[in-house]
Amino acid sequence: MRRYGDRTIVAVSGDVDVGSSPRLRVFLLGLVEDGARDLVIDLGGATFLDSTGLGVFIGVSRRLGALNGELVFAGGSPGVREVFEVTHLAKVFALYGTVEEAVARRPGGVRTAGPSPL
């Protein structure tokens, strides 16, 4: 985890699945409880993403939304990004090609550069 201004960048690696999702949920919600309101999930190191991982991201996004916060994603292999597309969550979440693009956006959905296409 690292901070860039008011943004908190969390790098996810390996499989985001039923085995790792409980720890990820606790970690991300802990960041929110500690005041993080703008989370960028760096999927560059993620090798697999299943529905339990998506459930974590949806839950954290809802919690952040209730606090006027935002969850966005950066990077990700074609396979990981395809999970967002197949589940239609690519229409719900902002997916950026790089962490730099995600950090460059303005809060609240106004972006300085659009999300990278899948």
UniProtKB/TrEMBL annotation:
GO terms for molecular function: anti-sigma factor antagonist activity. InterPro entries: Anti-sigma_ant, STAS_dom, STAS_dom_sf. Pfam families: STAS. Residues 1-106 form the STAS domain. Gene3D superfamilies: STAS domain. SUPFAM superfamilies: SpoIIaa-like (SSF52091). Belongs to the anti-sigma-factor antagonist family. This is Anti-sigma factor antagonist.
